[in-house]
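Quick one - first record:
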Amino acid sequence: MVDINKHRLVKSHDVKLDSEYVQWIYEIKERFRNAQIKAAVKINSEQLLFNWQLGRDLVIRKAEEKWGSGIVEQVSLDLQAEFPDVKGFSTSNLWYMKKWYLFYTEILYEPKLQQLVGEIMQPGHSKLQQIGMPLHEEKLQQAVREMPFPISFSYVPWGHHILIITKCKTLEEALFYIKRTIDENLSRKALDDYIRADLYHVSGTAVTNFPDKLPVIQGKLAQELLKGNYDLGFVSLPTGYDEVALENAIEQRMTRFLLELGEGWAFVGRQKEIVVSGKTRKIDLLFYHIYLRCYVVLELKVKSF
């Protein structure tokens, strides 16, 4: 609902506001907000494309071999002198651009990873049509030189890219976190938490009976959402604590606990009473999962279960 009384009224002319006008103004505002978002994405995309191309130039021109070991610092000084009001031309940032480009192009030397490269490149790229076949050195070098900027990278901020290439060991791991960032609109802090929790390796590793008890699609999604281990290091408890103490501690730090669980979890309550086979039972912690569209019961145990 839009409150018509909140609108500022023009006093110098005769104006009559009705519901149709209010709806029209609302649509205009929404269009402008969407335009702002698209503009921000476009700016980010152009900046990332520039970073990608500069990193590529430093690689394919063999800048350090041609102009000396201090050439990156020199490029930094020249760009800062020409564009004093622009941030991002520090020496360290230029090194990250080179490292960023190398991270995704050096894997072309691994034939088994060529298919993954093809998936993140623009459709129709001819250099990797023969998936799984080793590239000859000359064609390999040409592929590296011509590797286009992956469009999906545009939706990930530069700081996130730096975090990914400095903490991920493999292409598969990096692409996993890029997809997570895009799908869940992760902040850099949330992305860092995911990487620290090693979500790539532990996601979907929980022991379950989902394949036997759930429909195939829902079972796969449920399995993907659960980790084999959860880090509760943010909970401080004395030696010999019981389940009630653990439950209290988790409730007091529920925001942090939800971050550890991952995307899509909503806390419903604790000690929710239900009746099963005529007997009263209480659920330790009850959640609802937005993607699964179902309630999830969490039963706490402090001893082996």
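second record:
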Amino acid sequence: MIVVSSTEVQNNFGKYLMLSAREDVMITRNGKVIAKLTAIQESKERYQEVDVPGNPMMVMESAKSYHYKRRKASYEEFLELTRGSEERYEYIDEEIYLLASPRAPHQFTLRKLLVIFDQWSIGKRCEPWAAPFDIHLYRFADKPNLIHPDLMMICDFDEFVDEEGYYQGVPGLIVEIISESTKRVDIVVKFDLYKACGVKEYWIVDPSTKRITIYRFEDGEIAEQRTFEQGEIAASFLFKGLTVAVDQVFR
């Protein structure tokens, strides 16, 4: 068992999240235990609950769940916990997700797609942006979600950039390059979030199967979908002329 102060956890959140996979991390404030980080096995249910003392919250990391009974994390708590951390996190429906460092196949595919998207965008209003890039999406006006899509096409940047230079709109197209550790989040959690929050087109790119699946959303529902395999040309439903030779983007 590891005992650390809440300040230490805030300053090194990623470190203690990883350590909790091996042993419990007890978090104290003013000498009193207020929470515990405990690794649990993922079940067939979406979450598994663990009883903890104090004031608990939830954190998710890849295929492991870190769940604290009674309530989830508020956006303010998420910002406080991750402030100053060198790790990257996403905040979706009051849950915190630690983003693992991408591997070579992921980066190869991202680089190839970014070049293709960039060439398509020349002379057009829309332009591609790649992670890390903060995107806020809202199911409800008072509950922000913070995500870092791998790649996105934005057509209204100048209209929705704030005074600090952060984009506050909704990308027209989002691409996620999935892996074994991110598959459930990208295919289930983010899929539902993007569909509900106004993203018009979602590409799920899978280096392991060398497939690209494209969904077009309309009014919060799937309007069209198609999967492209090796030897085929993936084509956007909405961005005319934006095509990708599947063979060229996988290593």
